[in-house]
Amino acid sequence: MAKKLQNHLHNQSIGIVNNTTTTEVIEPPTPVKSVKSIKMASLMSANALLGENVPSVTATHLKRQLKISLAKERKAARTLGVIMGLFVGCWLPFFLMYVIVPFCVPYCSTPPPLLFSSIVWLGYINSTMNPIVYTIFNNDFRTAFYKVLQALCCRDRRTLLRH
Predict the structure, then answer these.
(1) At what angle do helices 35-50 and 2-14 cross, to 10 degrees?
(2) The whole model's pTM is what?
């Protein structure tokens, strides 16, 4: 059955229909709009070729996998949104200041040095916030971060106990 499916997919990709070479252009399939429809379409076409019905266990498994993948995608999108928002919020004032101030100097007074320092430090704070945000949103990063901190803490304790 698997060999039959492989032959059929190979024949479609090189333009052979019913074991004869065609000279007409084969139109690409219409784009599928979601992960669910891709999985279901591939499963249904494979089962239709093999002359089998879709078992309910497979459909349930696909639904569960789809829910899991969509939840992971939502979480990744939220994490990326927070990271990008923090980056823009922290670095945009810095870049705007260095683009606007050179053109503004002949016409307006220069900003106080405290403002310059504050804007530069706001950019540096972004670098401090990244590990915190990743620790909050990513379990793997959180685990690795805790292991590193634990190793550093334990190493210091062991050093203190030896002396």
Answers:
(1) 110
(2) 0.52
